[in-house]
Automatic annotation (TrEMBL):
Superkingdom of the source species: Eukaryota
UniProt KW keywords: Golgi apparatus
Name used for this protein in its record: Phosphatidylinositol/phosphatidylcholine transfer protein SFH11-like isoform X1
Family label: Belongs to the SFH family.
Matching PROSITE patterns: CRAL_TRIO (PS50191)
Topology term for the membrane: Peripheral membrane protein
CRAL-TRIO domain residues: 110-284
Gene that specifies this protein: LOC120278863
Major location category of this protein: membrane
Entry's localization field: Cell membrane; Golgi apparatus membrane
Organism from which the protein derives: Dioscorea cayennensis subsp. rotundata (White Guinea yam)
Length: 394
């Protein structure tokens, strides 16, 4: 049968393209989510792993992660022994406090009322793709909030949001930005906040949240902008600073009512509500702080992250659910030029194999001809033998 090389080459090329697309999609997502590793930091991370292993500590897979271990190392100034103690303390707290259950099941009572008395929420991303958290601290009605939920409930709510940020918001922002994202930008509007705002319940809530963030979710803040800070807040701020470590304080910017230029350097106005000088209104959901808004609400990105969580890697399921990673908002694959370059190399290999197949076919045809020739000689010898046997003897 004649070998149709042109047809095979076209088919091979297409098959290679499809295979490369699947490989590069998986590779791209894995690279983005894992991020780059600094060789020097990698040595510290490995030393921390070795110390944990030698001490017999059990480190769950979800925390045996370069960036997670690095956060605790930074938290303790790269002191490996102190980082190990902080990490084990976090694991103990998670177990005793039931953090996994809180992340999965906890819900505040009267959530819509809570939003009214406590205007807050995640709203878009900053100029580097990090999630932006906004809170109108000066409009918080603490006593009304405590009529709906306890201080312990609000602490659990904060934990649930931290877990969502680590497990959903950061990965989603990473895919949208096409680079590893592991910190957020926070904006607090403190207009009207002063010493009289720092009541006993407020102090209890503030210190509880601050302790949790500092000890169990370290190094997840990129920058904090405190805006509309009046003279009364400045007095309060001198007290609050005592509760914060030097690393956190270095990330905080306390600004008055002329904050827009500084804020716009970090966040595009399109991702800021009008009360911060931005252009967004979110009128369809009742205001910018009424609902989560960001890459983590993109259904395509959410489906990809679920796919990765289920399979441990990206698998193209577009044939069944219509999802294509290339169609994800803000998420692009390698360029066609790169794909074509790789495909050409692969095609050359396939062409070489096809030539070998042609050569093998020629050799087999030659062998077949030789076999037929030998068989013909054997038949002639058989006939000669029969003829000799039939001749009369002397």
């Amino acid at each position: 049968m004649e070998l149709k090389r042109s047809s095979l080459s076209t088919s091979s090329f297409r098959s290679i393209q499809e295979a490369l697309k699947t490989i590069r999609r998986s590779f791209t997502i894995k690279t983005i989510l894992e991020g780059t590793h600094n060789p020097k930091d990698e040595q510290f991370v490995q030393s921390l792993r070795d110390l944990l292993l030698s001490s017999g500590a059990q480190l769950p897979d979800k925390f045996d992660d370069y960036h997670t271990l690095l956060r605790f190392l930074r938290m303790r100034g790269f002191d490996i022994v102190k980082a190990k103690e902080a990490l084990l303390s976090m694991l103990k707290w998670r177990k005793e406090f039931g953090v996994d259950a809180i992340a999965k099941d906890f819900k505040l009572n009267e959530y819509e009322k809570v939003k009214k008395y406590y205007p807050h929420g995640f709203h878009g991303v900053d100029r580097n793709g990090r999630p932006v958290y906004i809170e109108r601290t000066g409009m918080v009605e603490l006593m009304a909030l405590l009529n709906e939920n306890s201080i312990d409930d609000y602490i659990k709510y904060h934990i649930s949001q931290q877990e969502k940020t680590l497990n959903l918001r950061f990965p989603a922002c990473s895919l949208a930005a096409k680079k590893h994202i592991a910190s957020s930008t926070t904006i607090l509007d403190v207009k009207g906040v002063g010493l009289n705002s720092f009541s006993k319940p407020a102090r209890e809530l503030f210190t509880g949240i601050q302790k949790i963030d500092s000890n169990y979710y370290p190094d997840t803040l990129n920058q904090l902008f405190i805006v509309n800070a009046g003279s009364s807040f400045v007095v309060l701020w001198k007290m609050l600073k005592a509760f914060l470590d030097a690393r956190t304080l270095s990330k905080i910017h306390v600004l008055g009512n002329k904050f827009q230029n500084k804020l716009f350097e970090a966040v595009d106005p399109s991702n800021l509500p009008e009360f911060l000088g931005g252009t967004c209104t979110c009128s369809e959901i009742g205001g910018c702080l009424m609902k989560d808004k960001g890459p983590w609400t993109n259904p395509e990105i959410s489906e990809i992250l679920k796919n990765v969580e289920r399979n441990g890697e990206y698998r193209d399921e577009s044939s069944s659910n219509g999802l294509s990673i290339g169609e994800c908002s803000g998420l692009q694959e390698f360029t066609d030029e790169e794909l074509n370059s790789i495909s050409k190399i692969m095609l050359e290999e396939v062409s070489a194999l096809e030539r070998c197949l042609d050569d093998s076919k020629t050799i087999l045809q030659d062998l077949k001809s030789k076999q037929e020739e030998i068989e013909s000689h054997i038949e002639q010898l058989k006939r000669l033998t029969i003829s000799v046997n039939k001749s009369p003897s002397d």
